[in-house]
Amino acid sequence: MISYHLSYTSALSHVLHISITITDNNQQELYLQLPAWRPGRYELQHFAQKLYEVTATAQGTTIVSRKITKDRWVVEANGAKTVTVNYSFYARQMDAGGSWLDEQMLYINPVNCLMAVEGREPEPCELTIAIPENWQIACGLPEIRKHTLRAENYDELVDSPFIASATLQHASYSLAGTTFHIWIQGDCKPDWPTIVADFEAFTKAQLDVFGDFPVPEYHYLNIILPYRTYHGVEHSHSTVITLGPGELLMSPALYKEFLGVSSHELFHTWNIKKIRPKEMLPYNFAQENYFRTGYVAEGITTYYGDYMLARASVFTAQQYFDELNTTLQRYFADYSRQHMSVADSSFDLWLDGYKPGIPDRKVSIYIKGALTALLLDLQLRKTTNNNASLDKVMRELWERFGKRTTGYTGQDYATLVEEVAGQSCKEYFDNYINGTATIEPALDEALHYVGCTLKQHENTLLYESRFGFKVTQEQTIKVTAVAPASPAFNELSTDDELVALNGRKLEQNLQHLLQQLSPSETITLTLFREKQLRQIILTPSAKTFYPKYTIEKRPDATATEKENFKQWLHQDFEA
Question: Domain residue spans in the chain?
Answer without folding.
Answer: 2-165, 170-250, 301-451, 462-538
